[in-house]
Amino acid sequence: MSHYPILGVSTIMEGGNHTDARYLTDLFSRHADKKITCISGHIHLQDAAVYNNVHYYCNGALSGFWWEDGNKESAGKCYYRETPPGYAILDLYEDGRVNNQYIPHAF
């Protein structure tokens, strides 16, 4: 668990990923026998990536109301880009599977 994303797709648009991402992804690769899931925030966008069998999730932000009307007219009230304010529920299983579900906040 990390505030800044270690690896993600939307970090290309938003920045804010770990400066030591190469070190961490190499470390995770050396422990491929472990089931690793990384969760983060910071960029307030819903994002999921899989690299070398490691799952990386960023799950928006519940504090979306500070965006007021949002920054994209077509997306909706309080959205940041196309991500609505919300939260995630992660189900972690003994066999290493993970289910990440993003729950948009109901207005």
UniProtKB/TrEMBL annotation:
Name of protein: Metallophosphoesterase
Organism encoding this protein: Paraflavisolibacter caeni
